[in-house]
Design a protein that fits this description.
Strand order of the largest sheet: 1-2
Helix content: over 70%
CATH architecture: Up-down Bundle
Order of helices and strands: EEHHHHHHHHHHHHHHHHH
CATH topology: Formate dehydrogenase/DMSO reductase fold
CATH superfamily: Formate dehydrogenase/DMSO reductase domain
Number of helices: 17
Length: 421
């Protein structure tokens, strides 16, 4: 294929039609179109519902009903972080994409330091997949912030707010990763290896700050022991993300490298890593539920979420992958285990976000659960199924990741194997 070189980077000469209208891009367009419709639905609910016109007929500015109508007009009831149902499917997807994407980058950086040459040869493709998922996560969270919130972030900046804490971090982390990819593509292997350690440190810092921000968001609600008592919560995020990251890497290896010389070696490395990390995650789960708040444990293990926890998360994240990779080194079993960990990992994030939110811990005065607003019915378990618009936007985020990866591969051949230099 004919190439042009810019700053040492070889870029494929690809026609406009081949670049933007291949099968992967067309699939991503379908997913993104679903997201656009989901965003339209949310905007319609937030700003154009009947409640939004209630203020026009309100004569008494202190009327509680008028205040409630205005609250609905501004904040809506889909995809917002607020006291009643503070976290939604947006947050589930954001956490999954960000942690899994950065987990892929982290694991590749570790492989660089360990000089695992087989991973070095294909590291560009993995790292592009990781950064694509990070961008997909940022797309998801951007839709969770309504227009007024996004404008006010800049017109009235509050540097202590969660999103402002993330902005400078990603402004540093993302360029670092992109530069690492550049070094790999331009065959500057030694420099790429030297940059691996800063990337690992930045990944850990991101996890720490991400944990702090999410705990900060949760503290808006009545006291919840999930964030203060769940032991080593940051390590849970990291370990579970590694399991999902390896799943993504296994699927990518199958799609890109099947039938090539490196295929079985890569799948064997992924198999061993999956076995290692799901074993650690299983031990962590046992330890965590033995010491975390009893009330929250009962909800997850024996209450409203028990079927999803055991039939989804435990089965798909731990049991099935373990049985598939424990003794067998056949690549197709590693592929099945990878798919299982991807699905199970997402279910795990869902349970954590919705299950954590379901336990308000609001019986502070021993008189029963408190009300959350003037007209609410007092209840102990707060859980609402995801809105269709949220589901469509989550599907759209997959389209974002696919489009970024495919564009990078079409222009830079990031999925091709590269000999060490």
């Amino acid at each position: 294929m004919e190439k042009i070189e810019i700053l040492g980077l070889e870029i494929n000469k690809v026609s406009f039609f081949a670049l933007f209208f291949n099968r992967v891009m067309l699939l991503s367009y379908i997913f993104i179109a679903l997201a656009v419709y989901g965003i339209y639905e949310i905007v319609d609910i937030r700003y154009f519902s009947e409640a939004a016109t209630a203020h026009a007929s309100g004569m008494d500015p202190t009327n509680p009903a008028l205040k409630e109508a205005m609250k609905l007009a501004v904040f809506g009831n889909v995809g917002e972080v607020y006291r009643e149902t503070p976290w939604t499917l947006f947050i589930v997807n954001y956490m999954y994409m960000i942690y899994t994407g950065s987990g892929i980058i982290f694991l590749v950086a570790i492989a660089e330091i360990m000089k695992l040459h087989i991973v070095e040869k294909i590291s560009a493709g993995f790292m592009v997949a990781g950064i694509s998922m990070v961008f997909a996560g940022l797309f998801t969270i951007a839709t969770d912030l309504n227009i007024l919130n996004m404008i006010s972030m800049f017109t009235s900046p509050n540097i202590k707010a969660g999103m402002w804490l993330m902005l400078p971090l990603y402004c540093i982390y993302i360029p670092f990763v992109l530069f690492e990819i550049y070094l790999v593509l331009t065959k500057k292997r030694e420099w790429a290896r030297k940059l691996a350690m800063p990337i690992i440190l930045l990944s850990i810092i991101i996890d720490l700050i991400e944990y702090y921000i999410q705990a900060k968001l949760f503290s808006m609600n009545t006291a919840r022991l999930l964030w203060t008592e769940f032991p080593g919560l940051m390590f849970y995020f990291i370990i579970s993300a590694f399991v999902s990251s390896l799943g993504i890497m296994g699927v990518i290896t199958f799609l890109v490298h099947k039938g090539k010389d490196e295929y079985e070696k890569i799948m064997e490395l992924i198999r061993k890593a999956i076995l290692f990390f799901i074993s650690i995650l299983a031990l962590y789960e046992v330890f965590a539920y033995m010491v975390v708040d009893k009330k929250w444990t009962l909800i997850i293990l024996f209450g409203e979420f028990k079927e999803v926890y055991f039939g989804g998360y435990i089965l798909l994240t731990l049991a099935v992958p373990f049985l598939l990779v424990f003794k067998s080194s056949k690549p197709y079993k590693t592929l099945l285990a990878s798919i299982s960990t991807i699905i199970g990992g997402y279910i795990g994030r869902y349970i954590f976000v919705y299950g954590g939110n379901a336990n308000p811990m609001s019986d502070r005065f021993g008189t029963g659960p408190e009300k959350y607003d003037l007209y609410a019915v007092a209840k102990e378990i707060c859980y609402n199924n995801p809105h269709l618009a949220e589901i469509l936007i989550v599907i759209g985020s997959i389209g974002i990741a696919l489009a970024i990866y495919k564009l990078a591969d079409s222009l830079l051949s990031v999925s091709s194997i590269r000999e060490n230099h």
